[in-house]
Amino acid sequence: MTPQSGPTATALPPFSQRLRERSMRMHQDAEGSTYLAALTAGQLDLTAYAALVSQHAVIYQALERLTADLADDPIAGRFAFPELARRPHLEADLAFLAARGIPTAAPTEATTRYAERLTELATWPAGFVAHHYVRYLGDLSGGQAIGRLIATAYGLVPGGDGVRFYVFDDVKPKPFKDNYRLLLDAMPLDEHEQEEVLDEVLLAYKFNVDVLASLAEQVLPQYPQVVS
Ligand code: HEM
Fold first, then answer.
1. Which residue owns the Cα nearest ligand 1 atom 40?
2. pLDDT per position as a tens digit, 59-109
3. Cβ 165 vs Cβ 56: under 8 Å
4. Mean pLDDT of 12-18
5. Closest CA relative to residue 204, chosen from 123, 119, 128
């Protein structure tokens, strides 16, 4: 045995680190969304914003139904944090927008496909975790800045009516994310299963990129001042 061939030489980095590194490219694609850029730059209006809230409502309904269905699962159940629940916040945002005369938008095809995939994961708890990670850790990261930008761009109060989706009342993002990464690292997955979850994380990003692209296609043509 050479000095380099012991267990430490072959050990993989922590799973949370592998997830972040493997998905960096897809994260850049998500960040680069033309719809998000126009929305956060204040080039759209509340109707265009409502289109995003409406997609989130469908996606989180599927995600949080799955969270509830898998609450007793030894892998998925560890991620069932009630304080993450976004559905009540999305319903409040949609109600606020409706009171302003702004209707809920229909789900795009990309949103429907995303929700269908989530439904399929009832039989694969580790795959559910892949999606849980992409949405909630994203919401607690870049999502926090996105929420503030949207509020100030469209005359809303940051953290108030219309942008409650971005508010986590009982979560401090930094310690929560640190603990979440420890939970990811502790998942009892062999290398093959880790690879499958890594692939599902990339798929989850792809669904999100597709949803944002579907909004760009549907919404942006109505805002000719937007340079895309
Ligand atoms: C303008 C758009 C976006 C910006 C500026 C942004 C920015 C960021 C930043 C700065 C972090 C690192 C935060 C930290 O480590 O504490 C982060 C993490 C993350 N973002 Fe985004 N993001 C954006 C969009 C998205 C989207 C659309 C998704 C997917 C739906 C997403 C998913 C994630 C995830 C899962 C993480 C956690 C990565 C990890 O540490 O494992 N982000 N984002």
1. 20
2. 999 999 999 999 999 999 999 999 999 999 999 999 999 999 999 999 999
3. yes
4. 96
5. 128
Q: Measure the CA–CA gap between 95 and 91, rounded to whole angstroms.
A: 6
State in Å: Cα 205 to ligand 1 middle.
Answer: 11
> Quick one: pLDDT at residue 124?
98
* Nearest CA residue ID for atom 22, ligand 1: 142
**DSSP single-letter state for residue 164:** G
Structure tokens, 44: 């759209």
Q: Above 70 in pLDDT, residue 4?
A: no
Q: Atom 6, ligand 1: which residue's CA is nearest?
A: 142
What's the N-to-C CA distance of the chain in angstroms?
Answer: 58
Mean pLDDT of the chain: 95
Cβ contact 106:53 at 8 Å? no
Domain boundaries, the chain: 34-221
Q: For 87, what's the count of Cα atoms within 13 Å in the CB-facing half-sphere?
A: 12
- Class of 34-221 per CATH? mainly alpha
Measured N-to-C along each axis, helices 87-99 and 46-69 cross at an angle, to the nearest 10 degrees, of 150
Ligand 1 midpoint to CA 89 (Å): 20
Confidence at residue 11, expressed as pLDDT on a 0 to 100 scale: 85
Q: Does the global pTM surpass 0.85? A: yes
User: Pocket of ligand 1, candidates 35, 52, 139, 141: which has the most ligand atoms within 8 Å of its Cβ, to mutate?
Assistant: 141
